[in-house]
Amino acid sequence: MAQYRRAKQKSFARFVFSLEKIAIFPGSHVKVRSTMIGPFRFLSRQTRGMHQAAYILATFAFASQILGLLRDRILAYAFGAGHTLDLYYAAFRIPDLLFATVASLFSIYALLPILSRLESEKEGLMMSFLRNTLVVFFAAMSFVSLVLYALAPILAPLIAPGFAQTTGSSAELVLLMRILLLQPILLGASNTIASLTQLRHRFVLYSISPLLYNLGIIFGALVLYPIFGIAGLGWGVVFGAFMHMSIQLPYFLVEKFEGKLSLTRMRTGLTEVLSLSIPRTLALASTQISLVALVAMASFLVSGSITIFTFAYNLQSVPLTIIGVSYAVAAFPTLSRLHARGASEEFLQYVESALRHIIFWSIPATVFMIVMRAQIVRIILGSGQFSWDATRLTAAALALFVISLAAQSITLLIARAYYAIGNTKKPLYYGLADIVISVGSGFLFLAAFHHSPFLRAFVEALLRVQDVPGAAVLMLALGYALGSIAEGVIGYYFFIRDFGLSNSRIARLSFESFSAAVIGAGATYLILAATGSAGKINTTIGLIAQAVLAGTAGLAVAGLVLTLLKNPEFAESVSALKRRFTDARKVVVAPSDVS
Q: How far is CA 137 from CA 43, 101, 184, in A?
């Protein structure tokens, strides 16, 4: 036992020594062999193949989203759709915009092509570049964050002008915003390190980080808020971002740091990264800019409007993350490699396969979420201080958000395909169209809703929110959805034109998937109607039982329709899932899989 303790102490000392050398002597060459063994070995296991990688990412994304929904339920239970959560979510707008702009300049998509090229030149050269890039990132982000920290009292009235007249609200908003400025620094560093994680195809490790991020936020709500008040919610976010980075850091440190880049070579590499990432960063910022503008409008509406808008946005992000993000992230490394090899035909086949499966999953998810929106919101948020009126408004906003699910998912893949070939400008143009349409239509619809009794009555009747105060926030959700749909349609049109992709197979798939989804959702609706409305079932267990029964029956009917149509995507998905579960019982981690 004593010998074991001494060995363990030596191992820890080597780890600390390695960390100190990297931090204190950035020019030194450190060669460390991986000791990632035991229960943590599965984190470094490499996953090849788009569908397997996508299903791994989707599985962990689903787990992360479950934690995210638990996070939202805790917040809804404790605070309801009211002023406290309005402040909390408004405070995210500047930090999230900072993350989408400055932090994303050193993103995976700009770094991966350069890292791949450096690694092929000399072992360890890539890590020298990545380490130096991380130092530059911390310096740049710290400077910008300090500037925004000083400007917080000026920025607060701009992001939530409706709160400007309340002195206490402005002070709390400034406090939260300043705390949350630490989040983009930590998440940005984590995403920079994640370029190595993706390059090594460690999709399990890559997928665990968001789980830890949500756990930190939950910790803040349950433990830190009772101690520190509203500031505790902010510190929980910071703690989650720190864990997001920390899980990947050991695998970064054990890589070989051999080779030295000259100052000229480093400057050339950073210039290339920025030239690739600036258009992409601006495209990514389009979503955040739209949200900043829409949240600013919501701050003028009744109390709780920002919370309802954000809760509905978070709910629609669940299928978007599971479907769109999973396939886009899984496809990007292979698309980059195929383009680098000049394998244009394989590149197109790979893109088409990912696109087909995104559409295949997105359309049914959209239809089923619209039909089951009330059950979804009541199960996840409908407790404690979260009222029935807030539930109805959130469900209606969710239905509007989710109509853009397929478009958002397609946009994610199309952007990755353009990034893989080094074209970062076109996604930027599509993102600019999103901003103009989202913000413009949100403003116009909001004005029309207030001034047109006919439009207001039509929207409230269609979405079943008659006599519910605060329904104007639905116009902002509709504006966001229209902007996303426009971006997806424009991007898809130019994408198939630029790449010469056939549209006939996609059109056939869309028709079959939509037909099966509508028929399946019809069966779901009949069961929901027969078992009682969401407002009349008063227990969470009863709602879950109703949703599971209706959803399972609807999915079974949809699956039967797809089988009768002999849909190839359905057959491919079933086959891939069977292989995944079969392989899971036969997994043997080779020594070469662990670095």
A: 26, 12, 11
The two tokens of residue 356 are 């087909």
| Contact status, residue 523 vs residue 553, Cβ threshold 8 Å | yes
Q: Which two tokens stand for residue 525?
A: 């609706």
Best CA proximity match to 569, nearest among 381, 354, 373, 393: 354
Amino acid identity at 350: Y
Residue type, 517: A
Distance, C-alpha 33 to centroid of its chain:
33
Whole-angstrom distance, CA of residue 124 vs CA of residue 145 = 32
Cite the DSSP H helix spans in 220-343: 225-228, 230-246, 249-253, 263-298, 305-319, 326-341
What's the pLDDT score for residue 130? Answer: 78
Place of tokens 């109509």: 403
Tens-place pLDDT, residues 266-289: 788 788 777 777 777 777 788 889
Helix (H, G, I), strand (E, B) or coil at 257: strand
The Cα–Cα gap between 462 and 403 comes to 15
State whether residue 30 is helix, strand or coil.
strand
Dihedral over alpha carbons 526, 527, 530, 535 (to 10 degrees): -100
Structure tokens at 425: 């400008």
pTM score, whole prediction: 0.79
Q: What residue type is assigned to position 348 of the chain?
A: L
Distance CA 109, CA 115 (A): 10
Helix axes 230-246, 167-180, angle to 10 degrees: 10
The answer to whether the Cα torsion of 365, 370, 374, 377 is positive or negative is positive
* Distance (Å, whole) CA 142 – CA 80: 35
How far apart, in Å, do the first and last CA atoms of the chain sit? 28
SS (H, E, C) 458-493: HHHHHCCCCCCCCCCHHHHHHHHHHHHHHHHHHHHH
Share of residues in the chain with pLDDT > 90 (%): 38
Q: Could you tell me the two tokens for 170?
A: 């402005």
Tokens representing 496?
Answer: 């198939």
Tell me if residue 21 falls in helix, strand or coil. helix
Please give the average per-residue pLDDT across 73-88, as a whole number: 90
Give SS3 for 124.
coil
Q: Are 299 and 161 in contact (CB under 8 A)?
A: yes
Mean per-residue pLDDT, 324-328: 83
| Closest residue by Cα to residue 109 from 483, 428, 342 | 428
- The single-letter DSSP state of residue 80 is -
For residue 581, what pLDDT is reported?
54
Query: Residues near 53 by Cβ (< 8 Å), separated by ≥ 6?
Result: 47, 201, 203, 330
